[in-house]
Amino acid sequence: MECSEDGCDATAAVRIHVPWDEDRNVCAAHGRALVQQDGVVATTLEDTDAEWP
Questions:
Q1: Which domain holds residue 27?
Q2: Residue 8 lies in a domain
């Protein structure tokens, strides 16, 4: 499964839960950036080779 962010073809590692937007699956790099925002939570996707610390 690919990251849902525009222009990114990395493998999705986490599902981002965003209170003001739809939940989406993103790669580790986008996940790290997005969880810096208040209220955003990430949960690890199972069955993925991508790493999420």
A1: 1-47
A2: yes
